[in-house]
Amino acid sequence: MTSFFINIRFFDILDIFLVAILLYQFYRLIKGTVAINIFVGIFALYLVWLIVKAFKMELLSSIMGQFIGVGMIALIIVFQQELRRFLIVIGTRYFRSKRFSFDKVFTLNPRAASINIIDSIVAACEKMSTLKTGALIVVSNAAELRTYTHTGNIINADVSSLLLETIFFKNSPMHDGAVIIIGNKIRAAGCILPVSDNPNLPSNFGLRHRAGLGMAEETDTLVIIVSEETGNISYAQNGKIFDGISAKELTRQLKMILL
Predict the structure, then answer these.
(1) Is residue 2 part of a domain?
(2) Closest C-alpha among 231, 230, 208, 90 to residue 138
(3) pLDDT of the residue at 12
(4) For 213-233, how does the pLDDT look when each residue is reduced to its tens digit (9 = 90+)?
(5) Whether the Cβ atoms of residue 180 and residue 149 lie closer than 8 Å to each other
(6) Do 49 and 125 belong together in one domain?
(7) Of residues 142, 140, 243, the one with CA closest to residue 193
(8) Which among 141, 140, 194, 133 has a CA at the least distance from the CA of 161?
(9) How many domains does the chain have?
(10) β-pair partners for 182
(11) Owning domain of residue 219
């Protein structure tokens, strides 16, 4: 008598669960990009191969099997940028849990210092928003971001609203680039950020917004954008961008990063 009982172990369920999480996270990473169409095409081809194998169509199964056999190499080539972004996000989120720093050791009241930094950033963004001065500010409390700070001018100055406003003043030689704030220091200014290729961004978003989103896609940072055209304050984080936020919302997001 044929038994139809399937023995499912705990590790089988765990295996399926982990694969589902990986596929979902990869989908979130490439959603809204051209890569999603390639991913769907490869996945559909793999399903066809499984059906062909199930019906024991030997010739077609052999041909498709040769293609699937080198599929991993093809995936690495096709999804090179996406895989790089995925690994960077994992790495930066790991180091974000690191809370020790010498700056905190030698600061008498680190929480009060962080609140002053937050107030300075928010005040500068409000002033630049009123004057419609374009700005791009990257805020991190863990990752050093040396790849990006080395594209600009190293400053290592204390954070102040006046300094931020001066850097982004229209006649300043560094106003077109990004300011990178790490912990309680303005580490660099005039920095070049990666530009997002997301095709779903609104048409009123310019290069400054795309650079802010690109940085948020590749790193675990908070990127603040002040529009030169509208004066709107936006922030990008975790591969998403939020436009037209209030000073209260900006303060809340900065507290989540710096406190």
Answers:
(1) no
(2) 208
(3) 82
(4) 999 988 889 999 999 999 999
(5) yes
(6) no
(7) 140
(8) 133
(9) 2
(10) 140, 185
(11) 103-258
